[in-house]
Design goal:
This protein is an alpha/beta fold. The protein has five helices and seven strands, in the order E-H-E-H-E-H-E-E-E-H-E-H.
Length: 149
């Protein structure tokens, strides 16, 4: 299982997701361009030294990501067709999250094999991307018996 971030904007969120991935044993794909420099202090502060403990792959753009990363893409989106509790995950899924400011563009939606949304109370737009990644990853690992031992 992998977490992929499409053109992330906020270094602290990426650092938090790298830390999550390291602790739970999943890889992270970063699809550039990003809204910050890789050396950003917020990234280092949130990720601490966890980036060394997980497989982090940076891709120059969407096409490079697709060429290097075969597998089923599960896009987390507020416009998703399937509520998270109704989704069945596979152990080699790529859990994809859009940028904080713009989400995922139509070409990413079109490439997704499955679109999923986290159910929320009416009137709320979205969750923080790092929180969303934690929720979706936890459910995917639960379903696939992927939790670390």
């Amino acid at each position: 299982m992998r977490i992929a971030l499409y053109e992330p904007d906020i270094a602290g969120n990426v650092g938090t997701i790298i830390r999550l991935a390291a602790c739970l044993g999943v890889a992270v794909d970063l699809i550039e361009p990003m809204g910050f420099a890789w050396s950003d202090r917020a990234l280092a502060r949130a990720g601490m030294d966890y980036s060394e403990a997980t497989d982090v792959v940076r891709h120059a753009d969407w096409d490079a990501f697709r060429a290097a990363t075969p597998g089923r893409i599960v896009l987390a989106t507020t416009a998703g067709a399937a509520p998270l509790p109704q989704v069945t995950f596979e152990a080699d899924d790529i859990l994809l999250f859009g940028s904080e400011s713009a989400g995922a563009p139509q070409l990413v939606h079109a490439a997704a094999n499955l679109r999923v949304r986290i159910p929320m109370r009416p009137g709320f737009r979205s969750l923080n991307v790092a929180v969303s990644a934690g929720i979706v990853l936890a459910e995917a690992l639960r379903q696939t018996d992927g939790w670390p031992q």
